Amino acid sequence: MLIPLSWLLEYAPLPEPVDAGEVARRLTGIGLEIESVTRVGHDISGVVVGRVLEIEELTGHKKPIRYCRVTTGTKERQVICGAVNFAAGDLVPVALPGAVLPGGFEIIASRRYGRMSDGMICSAAELALGDDHTGIMVLPPGAPLGADFVSYAGLRDVVLDVNVTPDKGHALSVRGMARELASAFGVAFTDPADAGLPAWVGEPGEPGAVYPASIADPTACDRFALREVRGVDPGRPTPLAMRVRLARAGTRSVSLAVDVTNYLMIELGQPLHAFDRSRLDGPIVVRRALAGERLETLDHVVRDLDPDDILITDSSGPISMAGTMGGLATEVSESSADVVIEAAHFSARGTARMSRRHRLFSQASARFERGVDYELPVRASAKAAAMLAELGRGTAVAGYTLAAEPIEPVTIEMRADHPGRVAGLTYDERTVISWLREVGCAVERGSPGVGSAGHGGDVAVLTVTPPSWRPDLRDPNDLAEEVIRFEGYDKVGVAMPRANAGKGRTAAQRLRGAVGQALAGAGYVEVISAAFGSAADFDRMLLPEGDPRRLAVGVANPLSDEEPLFRTTLLPGLFQVAGRNAGRGFADLSLFEIGNVARNKDGREAGPGASGNGRPGSGATSRTAPILPVDRGPTAAEIAELDLALPDQPRLVAIVLTGQREPAGWWGGGRSASFRDAVEAARTVLRTSRVPYRVVPGRREPWHPGRCAEILLEPGTAAGAGEPGEPGEPVSVGYAGELHPRVITAFRLAPQSCAVELDLSLIERAAAGLAPVQAPVISAYPVASQDVALVVSDAVLAADVEAALVAGAAAAGTGAQLEDVRLFDVYTGEQVGPGRKSLAFTLRFRAPDRTLTDDEVAVARDAAVASAVRRNGATLRGG
Asked: Which CATH number fits domain 213-404: 3.30.2010.10, 3.40.50.720, 3.50.40.10, 3.30.540.10?
C-alpha cells in the first residue's frame, strides 16, 4: 500500500524535522514492514502557473498542433502543444526552459513544426501525477499566476510503500496507519473518522427522504447505510490537492464522485460506492445470488453469479458485487446529478471467496476480506455526502438509511502476565493495560487468578473488549502480540534450542534416510507430490467399497475444491507426476516418495465433494482437536485427547515405474519396466531395513490380479506394530506389481506401468527390535558354487523352495556355509510336464577357516536338495 507521509502527519503530527527513515524504522519495528521510502516531487523544478492567452491552430499536420501564447505574469512565451482539452484563459502548469521534470528530463527551447517553442505545457503524466498523458492539467481559476507549481500543488512529499499483512487490515488506511504511527512515537492521534463530520451525521432520514434499503441475508452483511446528494454539477473538477494525494497513493483520478469515494476509502479504510440515483429501480436489498443471475461489472465483463455471491440488488436484479465491484448499469456517469452513496460492512469470508471465485480483486475487496470497522459506515457515508455536496455544488439530503443486524462485541479474558510469558520477558501490569488501551481496547481489571507453577503469586485477570476497527483481536495471544510489538520485538531474546548430546537422529529417521538412499542408488528419483486428493481418485484406482483407503479425512478449508481430502495413499500423487512428465515427453520414469497419509478412525468414507464439515459422509473426523496453550508443554491428558481427535497417519513408501527401465543404445535394445522390477524395488526397501520378509502372490487394487505380489513380514517381526492377529502370524506390509490396465488408462500412464506401496511405519516398528548391525566376517577362502534344478508344482512358490534349501544346508553340519542362494532360471514346458515348473538355483558355499573339499560341498548340496524334496515335493531335474 502506498501512503504519502504528509497525509499521515495530518492526523499524527510528529515534531519537526521529520526523519522519513526513522518513521520507516519505527513502523517496521511494530510489524508494518516498509518496503521502500521514496522522495517524490523533489526532482521537479522550473514549473510555474501560467495562463493561456491565445491559441493558434496549425494546419497541415496528421494530428492537432496548437501554437499557444502563454503568460507567467511577468513574461509572455510561445509554446507548441498537441493537447486540445484546454482553452484560452485557462490556467495551466508551464515548464520554462531549463526546467527539470521527473526522471531528470530537462526542458529546452526548440524549433518544432516551423515555430519556436519556448517551454512546455504539462500533463499529469509528465508531472508524475498519474498515467493520463492525453490532456493538459487545467488548474482551478484561483491558482496564483506565476507561482511555483511544485509548492502550490504540494508535490514534494515522501511516499511509504507498506507491506500490510492479512492480519492487520486496519492498517490499509491513513486512519489505521496514522494511529500506529502516533502510538510508535507517543504523539496525539486525531481520528479522521471524527474530523470534519457534518452536524447531521447521526440523524436518521425521514421516511421516503433517503433511498430505502434492507438486508435479506444477515450472514452476508450486518451494516448497510445509504445517503443522497442531489443537484451535483457533473462538470465540477476534483480539487488539485485531492488528485495529488490520490496519485501518490497509486489511484487514478476518474470523476469527482468516484474520486471522493476513493479518497475516503484510502483515508478511513471504509470502501464506498456511488450509484446514479436515476438508474436505480426500486428498494435496494443485500442478498445472495439466485441461480442463473448475471451482472455486467464496471470492467465490462458479464459475470455468471454463484449462489454464494453477495449482491447489492434493486427491483431490476443485481446492481453490484458487494464489496468487490459495482455494476455497469448504475455507475455514475458524466451526466449524473443525483447520487446515492453506499457504505456497508460485508462478510470478510464471503467477500474473499467471491473475489477469488471470479478472479476479481479490487481495493475494496482487499479491505473487506481483511476486516473493516463495522461502526464506520454511518460516519464515512456522511463525510462522503458532505464532501460531494460541497465540491460538486449539490445538496446533501439530511439523514440516512441504515439497515443493521446486531453484532455481539468480542470479550477476551487474559491473565495480565500472559504477554510476558509468551515473550519470555516480564511486563508489569500497568504496561500491559497501557498498550492495550493505546490500540483502542477497553480494559477492566478483575480479581487475581491462581498463579501458574513457575510464575509465583496471584495474577490479575483482565477483561478486554477490542475496538470495532480491530476484528483481528480474538484471543489472548492476539492481545499479547499487541503488547510485545509496541514494547519492541528487539527486546525479545533469541535463544537457540540445544539438542541433548549424543542423541542424534532416531532409529526410524535413520532407517527412513537409508531407504531413500538405497532407492536413489538403485536409480529411482524422489518426488514430493500433493498431500491432497479427491474421492474420484479412489474410483480411478478401482478401490472397492469398504476399502480402508477410502476412509479419507476432509479438509475444512481446501486449497482447491477438486482436492478436498487428505490423501490416504501416495499412489495417485505419483501417478499424476508420472502423467505430467509423460505429457512433456519424459515417459521413462522411476519415481519414489516417502510420506504420511491420513485415514479416518471412525470408519466413515468420504463422499463426493467432502470438505471436513462434520456431516456424515464428509470424511471429517468425529472429534475436534483442542487448541492447546503455547506457554507450556502439553499434559498427558491433553496428548491423549489430541491422539483421539487426530486421524491415523501411517508413513508409506511408494514407487512407480513407467516406460523403459533399461534404455536402448549401441549396446543393444532396451528393456521395459516389469512387475519383476517392482518386486525388486520392494526387496530393496526390505533388505535395507533388515526385517525378515517373504514375497507371495497377492491380489489388491490397483494392481493387475495376475501380476501382483504381496510383501509379508515373517512371523514375530511385527511385534509392537499394533496389528491384529495371533503371535506368529505374518503381517502384510504392502504390494508390488503391474498396474491394472483400467487404472493405467484412467491416470494416462504408459502401458504396463508398475507400482509399489509399503507401510514404512510397520517396517520401522518391526526393525526397532532388531539387534545392531554387525560387520560380517569376510572369508579369504575360495567359494564353491553348485547349480541345482528342481522340478515342483506350479503352485509352489520359489521363495518356499529357497527357504527349504537354506534350512537343509544349515542342518548338514559339514562346516560348509551357504552364503547365497540365487534363482537364475524358471522353465515350463514339455520336458517337465503339465502343471510343473523347473526352478534353477545357484548355491554358493564357503567356510570361514579353510578351503572346502568336494565331498563337503556335495554333502551340503544334497542336504539342501533333500530339504526341498521333503518340504516342497521337489524332484531333482535330470537326477
From this structure: 3.50.40.10
Residue ranges of the alpha helices (H) in 793-841? 798-810
- Intervals of CATH 3.30.56.10 along the chain: 2-41+158-185, 412-490
Class of the CATH domain delimited by 45-155: mainly beta
The DSSP H or E segment spanning 339 is: strand 339-346
- pLDDT tens sequence across 207-218: 667 899 999 999
> Does position 90 have pLDDT exceeding 90, yes or no?
yes
pLDDT value of position 721: 42
CATH code reported for the domain at 507-529+570-598+650-769: 3.30.930.10
- Reported as a single tens digit per residue, the pLDDT across 535-562 is 999 999 999 998 999 989 888 888 888 8
- Homologous superfamily of 784-876 in CATH? Ferrodoxin-fold anticodon-binding domain (3.30.70.380)
What's the pLDDT band for 449 if we cut at 50, 70, 90? Answer: low
In terms of phi and psi (left: phi > 0; alpha: psi -120 to 50; beta: otherwise), the region of 332 is beta
C-alpha cell at 856: 563337503
Residue 378: count of CB within 10 angstroms of its CB: 19
Domain with CATH 3.30.930.10 in the chain: 507-529+570-598+650-769
Residue 414 confidence class, pLDDT cut points 50, 70, 90: very high
Predicted pLDDT at 133: 66
CATH 3.30.70.380 placement within the chain: 784-876
The residue type of 860 is A
> Cα(340)–Cα(320) distance, rounded to whole angstroms?
13
| Beta-carbon count within 10 A of 75 CB | 11
Burial (0-12, 13-18, 19+ Cβ within 10 Å), 503: exposed
In tens, the pLDDT along 583-614 reads 888 989 999 999 999 988 766 655 444 444 33
In whole numbers, what is the pLDDT of the chain averaged over residues? 89
Q: Distances in Å between the alpha carbon of 625 and those of 509, 555, 641?
A: 26, 13, 7
Query: Global pTM?
Result: 0.66
The burial of 15, by beta-carbon neighbours within 10 Å (0-12 exposed, 13-18 middle, 19 or more buried), is given as exposed
Where in the chain are all domains bearing CATH 2.40.50.140? Answer: 45-155
Q: Which fold, 412-490?
A: Phenylalanyl-tRNA Synthetase; Chain B, domain 1 (3.30.56)
The answer on pLDDT for 850 being more than 80 is yes
Assess contact for 702 and 739: CB atoms under 8 A.
Answer: yes
Indicate where the chain has its CATH 3.50.40.10 domain(s): 213-404
The three three-digit cell numbers of residue 150, written as one number? 511544485
Q: List the grid coordinates of 47.
A: 514549473
Q: 3-class SS at 447? A: strand
pLDDT above 70 coverage of the chain, percent: 94
Within 8 A by CB and 6+ apart from 478, the residues are 412, 472
Q: End-to-end distance of the chain based on CA atoms, in angstroms?
A: 90
Identify any residues that bridge with 735 across adjacent strands, giving them in sequence order.
710, 757
Query: Out of 1.10.3720.10, 3.30.56.10, 3.30.1330.30, 3.30.70.100, which CATH number does the structure's domain 2-41+158-185 have?
Result: 3.30.56.10
DSSP string over 571-607:
HHHHHHHHHHHHHTT---EEEEEEEE--B-SS-PPP-
Residue type for position 789: A
Q: Position of cell 508398475?
A: 754
Give the H or E element holding residue 867.
helix 854-872
Element (H, E) at 288: strand 284-288
Most confident of 377-386, 441-450, 773-782, 847-856: 377-386
Rounded to the nearest angstrom, the gap between the alpha carbon of residue 537 and the centroid of all alpha carbons in its chain is 23
State pLDDT tens for residues 499-531.
Answer: 677 777 888 999 999 999 999 999 999 999 999
- The string of pLDDT tens digits covering residues 127-178 is 988 777 668 999 999 899 999 999 999 999 999 999 999 889 999 999 999 9
